[in-house]
Amino acid sequence: MISERPRISLLGTTALLFDAPGETTLETQCRIWALANEMGRLPGVQEAVPGMNNLMITFVEPPRRLHEIQDRLVELWTSVEPLPVQGRCFDLPVTYGGEGGPHMADVVTHTGMSVDEIVAIHSAPIYTVYALGSHPGYCYLGGMDLRIATPRRQIPVLRIPCGAVSIGGDQTGVSASEGPSGWNTIGSTDVVFFDVARTPPALFRPGDRVRFKVERVVR
Amino acid sequence: MIEVLSAGALATVQDLGRTGSLNLGVGWSGAMDPLALAAGNILLRNDENAAGIEIPVFPFRVRFARSTVFAVTGADCAPRLDDRPILPWWAQCAEAGQVLSLAVPKKANWQASRAYLCIAGGIDVPLVLGSRSTQLRGAFGGHQGRPLHEGDVVPIPGPGRQARSGFGLIPPGLVLPFEADGVPAVRVLPAAEYECFTPASHDALWSTPWKITPQSNRYGYRLAGSELKPVRPLELRSHGIVPGVIQVPHGGQPIIQMRDAQPSGGYPKIGTVVEADLWRLGQAPIGSHVRFVRCSWDQALDALAETRRWVANARRLVELHCSHGGSDD
Lengths: 219, 329
Known about the structure:
Chain A has helices at 26-40, 66-79, 104-111, 115-123; strands at residues 7-11, 15-19, 45-50, 54-59, 89-97, 127-132, 139-142, 157-160, 164-168, 171-174, 179-181, 184-188, 209-218. Chain A is α+β, with helices and mostly antiparallel strands. A seven-stranded mixed beta barrel of chain A has the order 5-12-9-10-7-6-13. Chain B folds into two domains: 2-170 and 314-328, no CATH class; 179-295, Cyclophilin (Beta Barrel), CATH 2.40.100. Chain B is 17% helix and 25% strand. Chain B has helices at residues 34-43, 172-175, 199-207, 278-282, 297-323; strands spanning 2-6, 12-14, 52-55, 60-64, 68-74, 80-81, 84-85, 92-94, 99-102, 115-119, 153-154, 179-180, 183-190, 210-212, 220-224, 239-240, 245-247, 255-257, 264-265, 269-273, 289-294. The longest helix of chain B is centred in the last third of the chain and has 27 residues, at 297-323.
């Protein structure tokens, strides 16, 4: 769902969601990062959390006058200077298909492409970490080729393993720990993405770049 | 120390939650019934955010290795200290070696499914990213980042100066009831994709009961009821979400995000259970029904103010009792 103007909606009394207009782009994401920095500094805001071309604002205390914070969001959106992409680059070795990629067949069915074509298209781009979310250390990657976009699953899977490389709609990402997911898992990697004993605990930050290196393809 | 003699699945150490790390992908965790945990802590004159043990499956038994003051809040699990029945929602004193047993919750006057064991001074596990709550998905926080098992020894602080025993509180389930047509209810604010659902889906959302299925846990409650259908299929960009968000996956059966929910998602959101009513939902037993009541922003804030008043009043009563040298049995 893409709209012409920014959309602001409620997440109960706990948070607000700001959704940027237009198609998902890196340029918009740079503006989202800048908006997050500004909003995070406002009194009453607990955290400003970037998503994919959107931003969640959680409240220390829900404001009585909601429109004030809504107006501020729209005003800042038009005035902020987008943050530049300043990240490191990581290579992630991936085994595609087989036991570690149980939903590869669903992506094949949906796209009408072969496993090899899907692997080639998925491993070609340099992806940008747009945001962290979902679970500790997980990152949302921007830049997937839309030819391999596959809708999220009808019913979420209760358990997918750590290191699962998956596609959800026109996005891709890698699970940082075992857990439930509604995405289609097409491969696996064994990189450690989150360790609470490390500072910072998450391997990636927004703005970092990621390449998937094809280690093996199980057809 | 307290020693866990028997624990069903998923008894965890929880405080009121871990805020401030959503940007690392770390959700809030914390007590499913924050009101019960806060009340237990208030009875013991702890910080409201002190850690306790959340118990969703029974029977549950612990042995106190030293004398301590404690309280069991949440569901009425017919608590016994050795062989003696004791009151829930009551500051109690245990001697070293005594065993606390909790049974399956009674169908009492208030509907509840989770009990909280609170200890004077709080469960003494390390703060991780600012909280003592168990992060099950990340396997950190709480007691070794996992649910409690039989044989676990959980650290508690030395003898406190402040806690007294011999008094209690009336559970908020009795004094703050909220129902629709006789079914326990929670208030809901429409969310971003509300308007994208069919009129029949809107009717079903507000006027039919929703069953909490056995596939419900600290991550989320999967509900069963009428099928909720968007006018056309929706694929959204991933975005932040919070406990209380009601997502509708393509199958049409809603899932309410709970305390261990992922902090982001992409399924369409038809509404969000307001913060003030999350404690009610946290106590709703599997197999029971819940109704959604539409509310306005101001009504939602008024409801939040009402629960805050209950907490503040509980704190005031306990302080008043203790400052008048209340009995110490």
